[in-house]
From TrEMBL:
Name this polypeptide is given: Fibronectin type-III domain-containing protein
Every Fibronectin type-III domain range: 319-407
Gene3D superfamilies named in the record: Collagenase (Catalytic Domain), Immunoglobulins
InterPro entries listed in its UniProt record: FN3_dom, FN3_sf, GEVED, Ig-like_fold, MetalloPept_cat_dom_sf, Peptidase_M43
Length: 1142
């Protein structure tokens, strides 16, 4: 599938060692960098999305922590071997959550359900040409699809991963990362950076068009283009990666590449979106986080073909529970209960703020693992922990809270001294003849560790102490012992660690440092800097020969014992502080000074500098940094000028106030200079040098830092926008705060928009010209002239084109002029038409016509609304009617031509009717019908032949419902070939009986001809007529078309063709018999408006069945006897209807 403008980035895995150059440089992308047009298109889409969400405050993308689901697809061999482990999968999740918690208010990922394991060796080592087949079968539309194959190839290039930029199409909702790079703390975060709209830091760095490269400078005055070139982010330094002159030494850039302005590049080697070594660090900038915040908005666009709607899997009572923690040697051991069977792993989070905020992820566990050791805890700190399944979003365990103490490691031995007595049986610490510690005959401690810190032993800083350690108690002097090494440490800095510089004694082969065989003795001095509670550790180990001395205070040894004691170190003399010199001797308010000092018998590492008033009295603390001499202190910015200021150093623990320093001078900070701001210019307007009121002015391009210039800058008005400048003044060597001056260059506004050309017809009423813009000015020339605020009204007296110009003024800046052409078109001639047009009354008229373009027809000579459809005149009424027509040329309408239509009385004559038809049932074939009713004497007015017969009164039979025909037609004696009576009518519309103009009853003869008993009707001869025929128990028919009067006669034969059927209707006309003869359908005896044969007809037959010798409606075959033959005809025709109204 082809993506419109959608490019993807591929991070290659090959590491290239280039000696002293790029020590670990990634190969280039396997596809071209994204085009400028594609980037701009996506930026426009982002602006549209932001505008849509202005009302609900989603402009910035993320306003609270957002949780996004990831569908992990792990590719393995067909037999299920290989593939990313669950432990590494969860570690990868932790790594990206650490990076992306800074996107907006926080972006965190979780797994959508369980991983999708794809056991297919074909895709295990993946080639990008296989993407469509693989992903179309496995993609989900409600989470980010991340595929972890064993390897990824683009042709012959092995790559670490790739991803797509934000797009609405579902194909872009994919990320690919090679399994071995999932946990390298770079690749997955890098590809997700592309997913959320980040470009490489070296975008277009090798473009042959220098104008497309990003410049090093970030100074707008120097032409910085970081907002529009490179990766479009200004806090990521321009990156020349890909150029021949790029080199690094370790993690320091040493290249000589320069940008198009000649400035040396200084790229960031730690940026995640660069191609430098992972060993140089992995980080995003604030600008990149902001851009990914916008990328999140693109990825959650409702118009996308994918969503982030995959919900959490482990919820409710199934979330982890019973979270608790225990201090251990290596930190804090957390345990919890696993209450689910479908977790993908677990995520551990920690906060040092509270139980409801400040949490960040610290680790991950594979499924079914419920212990985790936090090795990054500090003493005396309150921690808050919570756990969730990695396939859940906000469904956490209850928070566990713990406050740590000073946590010392508990050393261990692989063999307990309870089994083999390798022990410290006596330990004695003495000062002179006085025993401070006298712990003897202790034998083996539990687990080979004796904790004797419950008793505090007083010692003095600076004093020398002697110790004696025995492997066998001196109480009895008997028994065996084991030769042991011995080491003693003291945690002098009280940080919970026994460090190398805190080791007092370690036995070796020298006489001065004897082993405990069975007695070791020695001495050490408590440093003068020590103080407070200090833990003393004594540890032994079985002598295994050279190299077996005890060096580790915590690690596991084979045989031996450890004992801990608690010393209270007291000072031997009062503590004091002597404050030294202040540098410099004259300082400006707000600046920092260096304060030296010396301390005696002082154990503190927390000091503060205090400042007096100008008379050397009333000391107050000022901001101080440092833990030893010299300290750095900041003079309060509001200090008044004076020459008698002094400082002193104090200690907060213990509380010691130092001596005062010699007097020094403080000069007050002068007020910032005054200046007009903002200053406005129009684009390209001549600017003047900036001015300000003050002494010894210095001009800057930044609010802080930078080097000031004594020369006032002249702003550039080339480009629109606001550029800020800063100015300070210096009085008595002290520089003031900087005054900000904003120079706003207003872009030349766009020319106003206006419709052009504007067309008028000659002599048409014109309106004043209009344009869209502010503060419009109207001109009669393209340049120069004086504009008018009043829009002109064009003249339409003469044909031709006249031009006008209009500009707009925005923020005092006038735009270019927009040209408006006004074209006046000459009035065209009226169209030509034949007139008058004569019709006789009732004659069928034809549509009027005229010669011209874009005709408009009217019924009045002026005004009214014309029609583009020519009228068809009415011939119903005698008289003359006037119609009018105009033509429109070039949108201008002509005068109207009158077309006169004269309707005169039509010619009339006696019109005779010749019609023929056959009835189904009586029809015998060979174009002949039975005359059985006539033979039996059953026609109206006849005497039945059978004595059982019932006569019917004379006269036509259509007087009743539904015909209601009142004609007086009758016969005294029927012709021998008479079949039955029919009702014949003429109408002007085929379907509507209301258009009937004539009706008469007539005799139907056996040859199909109709014999009329009444005289021919007098009718207009210019009108064609439809002939309709009805029979009392057959479906009525209408001629298929209107029949014209020919020689005062209307002739039509229904038997030779199908009768009228309404267009598009499923109705029926006549039945076609073998030989092509058409006959009227039989069995319609209960008439309805559409002549339908239905159950009412068979009901009538059932009522009359067997009643012979009568003139009945239910006698469908006209044989004088309703019987089964008639019912057969009904069954054949049931459901037939004509669709014509009679």
């Amino acid at each position: 599938m082809k993506f419109n403008g959608l490019l993807f980035f591929v991070t290659l895995i090959g590491w290239l060692l280039l000696y002293n150059k790029a020590s670990a440089q990634l190969l280039p992308c396997a596809t071209p960098a994204e085009s400028h047009d594609s980037i701009i298109s996506r930026e426009k889409r982002l602006l549209q999305l932001k505008s849509q969400f202005v009302k609900n405050a989603r402009i910035s993308g993320l306003k609270a922590v957002q949780y996004l689901p990831i569908k992990a697809h792990i590719l393995r061999n067909t037999d299920g071997t290989g593939g990313l482990s669950m432990a590494d999968l969860n570690t990868a999740l932790v790594q990206i959550n650490r990076f992306y918690q800074n996107v907006g208010s926080g972006l965190q990922f979780y797994f959508c359900g369980s991983p999708n394991f794809i056991n297919n060796s074909t895709y295990y080592d993946f080639d990008n040409t296989e993407e469509a087949v693989l992903c179309n079968a496995n993609d989900v539309s409600n989470a980010i699809n991340i595929y972890f194959p064993n390897s990824i190839y683009f042709g012959s290039f092995a790559v670490a991963g790739y991803a797509y930029f934000p797009s609405t199409v579902n194909n872009s909702n994919r990320v690919f990362v090679q399994a071995q790079y999932a946990t390298d703390n770079r690749t997955l975060a890098h590809e997700l950076g592309h997913y959320f709209n980040l470009l490489h830091t070296f975008q277009n760095s090798t473009n042959t068009n220098n104008a497309e490269r990003e410049y090093v400078t970030r100074d707008g005055i120097q032409g910085a283009n970081c907002n529009t070139k490179g990766d479009l982010i200004c806090d990521t330094p321009a990156d020349p990666y890909g150029r021949d002159s790029v080199s690094i030494q370790g993690c320091s850039y040493t290249g000589s590449a320069r940008d198009p302005k000649g400035q040396l590049y200084a790229p960031s080697l730690s940026n995640i979106m660069s191609y430098y070594s992972v060993s140089c660090g992995s980080s995003f900038t604030a600008g990149q986080y902001a851009r990914m915040t916008d990328g999140f908005l693109l990825r959650t666009d409702p118009a996308n073909q994918y969503t982030a709607s995959c919900g959490p899997t482990v919820t409710g009572a199934n979330v982890p529970g019973n979270l608790t923690g225990t201090p251990v040697v290596s930190g804090l051991l957390l345990t919890f209960s696993d209450n689910s069977s479908n977790e993908s792993g677990f995520i551990i989070e920690r906060s040092v703020i509270s139980a409801s905020e400040g949490f960040s992820v610290i680790g991950a566990l594979p499924p079914n693992t419920t212990t985790f050791t936090d090795q990054a805890t500090m003493a005396y700190t309150t921690y808050y922990y919570r756990v969730k399944a990695s396939n859940s979003s906000t469904q956490y365990s209850p928070v566990f809270t713990i406050t740590t103490a000073l946590n010392y490691c508990i050393p261990s031995f692989s063999n307990s001294c309870s089994s083999i007595e390798v022990v410290i049986d006596d330990f004695i610490l003495s000062q002179g003849a006085t025993n401070v510690i006298n712990n003897i005959n202790t034998n083996c401690s539990t687990d080979s560790y004796g904790d004797f810190t419950g008793v505090v032993y007083n010692v003095t800083a600076g004093a020398t102490y002697t110790f004696t350690a025995r492997a066998r108690s001196n109480a009895d002097g008997l028994g065996s012992y084991f030769d042991q090494h011995l080491t003693i440490w003291a945690d002098l800095d009280q940080d919970g660690l026994f460090e190398l510089n805190e080791r007092f004694y370690r036995s070796d082969s020298l006489v001065s440092m004897p082993r405990m065989s069975p007695t070791a003795t020695g001495s050490f001095v408590i440093p003068n800097t020590a103080g407070g509670l200090v833990r003393l550790r004594v540890r032994s180990s079985f002598n295994l020969g050279p190299g077996s001395a005890v060096t580790d205070p915590c690690g596991q040894l084979t045989f031996g014992e450890t004992e801990d004691y608690m010393l209270q170190v007291n000072s031997s003399a009062p503590a004091s502080i002597t404050t030294g010199a202040v540098t410099p001797g004259t300082v400006c308010a707000g600046q920092a000074v260096s304060v030296s000092f010396t301390g005696a018998n002082l154990l503190s590492t927390s000091y503060t500098v205090q400042l007096s008033d100008a008379s050397g009295s009333n000391f107050v603390s000022i901001p101080t940094t440092g833990t030893n001499s010299p300290l750095m202190a900041t003079i309060p910015v509001n200090s008044a000028s004076g020459t008698g200021y002094k400082v002193r150093v104090i200690s907060t623990s213990p509380s010691i106030i130092g001596s005062a320093s010699a007097a020094f001078t403080i000069n007050a900070t002068p007020a910032a200079p005054t200046a007009s701001t903002p200053i406005g210019y129009c684009q390209s307007q001549m600017a003047e040098a900036l001015t300000a009121s003050g002494s010894n002015l210095k001009w800057y391009t930044a609010a802080v830092s930078g080097t000031g210039s004594p020369s006032a800058p002249t702003p550039s008005t080339t480009a629109p926008g606001t550029v800020s400048y800063w100015v300070s003044q210096t009085v008595s060597g002290c520089e003031s705060a900087r005054t900000k001056i904003d120079v706003t260059v207003t872009a030349t506004p766009a020319a106003p928009t206006a419709s052009t050309p504007i067309g008028y017809c000659q002599s048409q009423m014109a309106e004043a010209l209009t344009a869209s813009g502010s503060n419009l000015k109207w001109y009669t020339a393209a340049v120069s002239g004086t504009g008018s605020p009043s829009a002109p009204t064009p003249s339409t007296t003469a044909s031709g084109t006249v031009s006008y110009w209009v500009s707009q003024t925005v923020s005092g800046c006038e735009s270019a002029r927009t040209k408006i052409d006004v074209t006046v078109t000459a009035t065209p001639a009226a169209p030509t038409a034949s007139t008058p047009i004569n019709y006789s009354q009732g004659q069928t008229p034809v549509q009027l016509s005229a010669v011209g373009s874009n005709l408009q027809w009217y019924t009045t000579s002026s005004g009214d609304v014309g029609s583009t459809t020519a009228p068809i005149p009415s011939t119903a009424t005698l008289g003359t009617a006037d119609y009018y027509v105009s033509q429109t040329v070039n949108s201008c309408e002509s005068s109207r031509t009158v077309v006169q239509v004269i309707v005169t009385a039509p010619a009339t004559a006696a019109v005779c009717i010749n019609v023929a038809l056959f009835l189904e049932g009586p029809y015998l074939g060979s174009q002949s019908m039975t005359t059985k009713l006539n033979q039996l004497g059953l026609l109206p007015g006849q005497t039945p032949v059978s004595p059982l017969g019932v006569p019917t009164p004379a006269g036509q039979p259509y007087t009743g419902v539904p015909w209601n025909y009142t004609g007086s037609e009758t016969v005294a004696s029927y012709p021998l070939n008479t079949v039955d009576w029919v009702l014949v009518s003429l109408r002007t519309g085929p379907q509507n009986a209301s258009t009937t103009v004539f009706r008469t009853a007539a005799l139907l003869l056996s040859n199909g001809n109709v014999s009329f008993l009444s005289s021919c009707p007098v009718l207009p001869t210019n009108q064609p007529y439809y002939i309709a025929v009805e029979h009392r128990n057959h479906m009525g028919v209408v001629s298929h078309q209107a029949i014209s009067v020919n020689n005062n006669t209307l002739s039509y034969n229904f038997s030779t063709r199908q009768s009228y059927i309404p267009a598009g209707s499923p109705a029926n006309g006549q039945k076609q018999l073998a030989g092509g003869i058409y006959v009227l359908y039989a069995a319609d005896c209960t008439k309805n408006p559409l002549s339908q044969i239905d159950a009412n007809d068979t009901s009538k037959w059932r009522a009359d069945n067997g009643r012979v010798g009568r003139y009945l409606l239910s006698d469908f075959n006209l044989d004088g006897a309703p019987d089964a033959n008639d019912n057969t005809l009904w069954r054949l025709n049931n459901g037939r209807f004509s669709g014509v109204n009679f």
